[in-house]
Amino acid sequence: MARLVQCGLSISPSQYQRIKALAKQQRKPQAFVVRGLIDIALPFAENGHRINFARILTILEFTSLALDTVIAKLAPEDSDRLLDLAVDHLKKFHASEG
Fold it and tell me: What pTM value is reported for the model?
């Protein structure tokens, strides 16, 4: 594990409660959760991007629906198999650590 630097970081009570709840849900230390959130958001900020979660989710949903529509029309026999593969990949590559 990489050496960690102790730093003083002040957050609002609301942020603290959200982090505490997420850490409890993930069964991880709060510091682990905060480091993970930093790892996700910092690269965006470093490249001058804002994180607009509503836009990201809208794009994700649109892409998913558009692809589903195309597959249903062009290869309906593959639809169920592809969904099963997607669920398998979700479990394999995106399962929560725990």
Answer: 0.57
Computed on alpha carbons and rounded to an integer, the radius of gyration of the chain in Å comes to 19
The per-residue b/e assignment along 51-65, b for 16 or more CB within 10 angstroms, e otherwise, is eeeeeeeeeeeeeee
Question: Dihedral (C-alpha) 14, 29, 88, 92: value to the nearest 10 degrees?
Answer: 140
Q: Which two tokens stand for residue 45?
A: 């900020």
- pLDDT one-digit tens code per residue, 27-59: 999 999 999 999 988 998 899 888 888 998 999
Tell me how crowded residue 76 is: count the other CB atoms within 10 A of its CB. 9
Q: What are phi and psi of 75, to 5 degrees?
A: -150, 65
Q: Where are the domains of the chain?
A: 14-50, 52-98
User: Kind and range of the H or E element at 75?
Assistant: none
Q: Could you give the CA distance from residue 67 to residue 83 in angstroms, rounded to a whole number?
A: 11
Local structure of residue 77 (DSSP, 8 states): G
How far apart CA 78 and CA 82 sit, in angstroms, is: 6
